[in-house]
């Protein structure tokens, strides 16, 4: 039997046996796996393009902000995994407005209204 020194507990274990003290620092859940797909990458690019490369909240306020853009799910994926690629559930936001939306400081109804305007404008 081939033994190796464990980097997690310092003891010797048979090669290939996982140490019971081993803890994975980051484990992707299903939602994160969905966000790392090609379809999601292309959908996020499309939403940014449809928003003309601007934060949709800033634009509604009369400002043009194209820095630090992210695509936000209005209804969280944990609540509706089917909304991953739904245009009316996605909105292009700057980092500041994305944080505000995640914290509930910007209402989902308002974000949905902005997303619907974009969707209807592009039809």
Characterization of this structure:
It is built from 5 helices and 4 strands. By secondary structure, it is an alpha+beta fold. A two-stranded antiparallel sheet has the order 1-2. Strands 3-4 form a two-stranded antiparallel ribbon. The longest helix has 14 residues, at 108-121. It starts with a strand and ends with a helix. The model has no long low-confidence stretch (mean pLDDT 87).
Give a short account of the largest sheet: 2 strands, antiparallel
Radius of gyration: 21 Å
Shape: elongated
Element order: H for helix, E for strand: EEHHHEEHH
What is the residue-averaged pLDDT?
87
Record field, number of beta strands: 4
Between the first and last Cα atoms, what is the distance in angstroms?
A: 67 Å
Uncertain runs with pLDDT below 50, 5 residues or more?
none
Beta-strand portion reads 5-15%
Q: Helix/strand/pairing class, anyone?
A: alpha+beta
- Fraction in helix: 25-40%
Strand order in the sheet with the most strands: 1-2
Helical segment count: 5
